[in-house]
Design brief:
mainly beta; 4 strands; about 40% strand
Amino acid sequence: GKIPAGEIPPFVPVMDHLPPPGPDYEGIPVRVKLPSEEIPSGKKTELFVCVPNSQDQYEWVELSEST
């Protein structure tokens, strides 16, 4: 049978804000859901990944943003 969508664990963690970038998150995609100003009743979702940069530090890079 089919598994109801609510019972499927997310493949990508969902957060309400980005944690500080660092080695614990390197290469791990993270979804951030924030209230949308354009769609007050909904939420905008952004997808980020943590990567090392040229200054030997870590940073979040936005991969995608919902509309």
